[in-house]
């Protein structure tokens, strides 16, 4: 359709395309408010998503309609790319198609409600023309949205997905994986970096009124995208909103650096590379991540995944901050948490502190601050005298004095064993 007369449509003597262009951002905000009020699925979206992604798409729709009126040309496939991509995102988050399509009609209604008071009896023909063009534009937008929505749904269950999952299953099972790799069209790397991930909740997952399922899926989508964005090659993963496993193909130069080490060893350069990737993932997803990392050949992924999982659990049990952890980073805690009679015996040394979280917190803080009273008191936000009192109580209950060098090793070992017993 090409209609140069569309640019002359005016209500009350004001050109409609100029009126809409001047107030496009305000209109987009009104559309977002109406979506949240009229459609429960949009009302349950995280506020940050409404004010950023949904707001942006609403603006693009309004701007697109302005261009139709200004040029007389309905948008083509390339011009509707934003609509298709946004609909694909809503599909991945789990919104039903009827909600997505309804959103376009809500937006069109906001535009009409805004323009209608400006029209007078002399504008009847322009009103009819505008409604006709708006319906044509809405048809194009709806078609683009449906196409993007179903393309994402099909991709989620496509052949490629199943072939990659079959390859991952074969690697984790320790089975010959070359045939599965050939079917997936993937060249197996010399070595994988194995990540066992524990992913914390995004604040939106705990915000009253926000659908936690949608917030979680949005977080998961961002995690996957960041992995694919920063890792060359195909990432094989089995991730949920709480974490999971990922196999990252190591670049040739990094695979070479790790070849001479012991099984599972992660060189410093690879650890730094991994830390950078996790940093991107945490920043974009808004969630804390603790990862156990190991390196393995394709036929050793089974053992590598078990080691990475054990390292991650040890780091969590030891209350380590978010980030990647190698076996070398938790050697003492790892060894002290291996099953056996010594583990139970060590753990029992701190059993009298069960049910006294302030004493356990004090002990952990004191050890992590290298037995420095002032630093520990500041971390706990207590007076140094209060710290001394708590340390004396710990000694009285357990017989272990964390302030004595002779007891320090047993105290550290006992705490590692106690945390492992509670967590693992």
In short:
By secondary structure, this protein is an alpha+beta fold. The chain is built from 19 helices and seven strands. A hairpin with a 2-residue loop joins β4 (236-240) and β5 (243-249).
Summed up, the domain count is 3
What series of H and E elements makes up the topology?
EEHHHHHHHHHEHEEHHEHEHHHHHH
Strand order of the largest sheet: 4-5-3-6-7
How many helices does DSSP assign?
Answer: 19
Beta-strand portion reads 5-15%
Helix content, binned percent: 55-70%
Largest sheet: 5 strands, mixed
What best-fitting shape do the alpha-carbon axes yield?
Answer: elongated
CATH topology of the largest domain: Globin-like
How is the secondary structure organized here?
Blueprint: E1 10-11, E2 14-15, H1 16-22, H2 24-38, H3 40-43, H4 47-71, H5 81-93, H6 97-115, H7 124-156, H8 159-173, H9 178-184, E3 192-199, H10 212-230, E4 236-240, E5 243-249, H11 252-258, H12 268-285, E6 289-296, H13 301-317, E7 323-325, H14 331-336, H15 341-348, H16 357-368, H17 373-380, H18 384-398, H19 405-423
Parallel strand pairs: 6-7
Antiparallel strand pairs: 1-2, 3-5, 3-6, 4-5
Helix pairs in contact: 1-4, 2-4, 2-6, 4-7, 5-7, 6-7, 8-9, 10-12, 13-19, 15-19, 16-17, 16-18, 17-18
Polypeptide structure, described:
By secondary structure, this protein is α+β, with helices and mostly antiparallel strands. The protein folds into three domains: 4-156, Orthogonal Bundle (Globin-like), CATH 1.10.490; 159-255 and 281-336, Alpha-Beta Plaits, CATH 3.30.70; 341-423, PucR C-terminal helix-turn-helix domain (Arc Repressor Mutant, subunit A, Orthogonal Bundle). It has 19 helices and seven strands. The protein has helices at 16-22, 24-38, 40-43, 47-71, 81-93, 97-115, 124-156, 159-173, 178-184, 212-230, 252-258, 268-285, 301-317, 331-336, 341-348, 357-368, 373-380, 384-398, 405-423; strands spanning 10-11, 14-15, 192-199, 236-240, 243-249, 289-296, 323-325. A five-stranded mixed beta sheet has the order 4-5-3-6-7. A two-stranded antiparallel sheet has the order 1-2. Strand 1 (10-11) and strand 2 (14-15) form a beta hairpin. Helix 8 packs antiparallel against helix 9 (178-184). Residues 259-263 have low confidence and may be disordered.
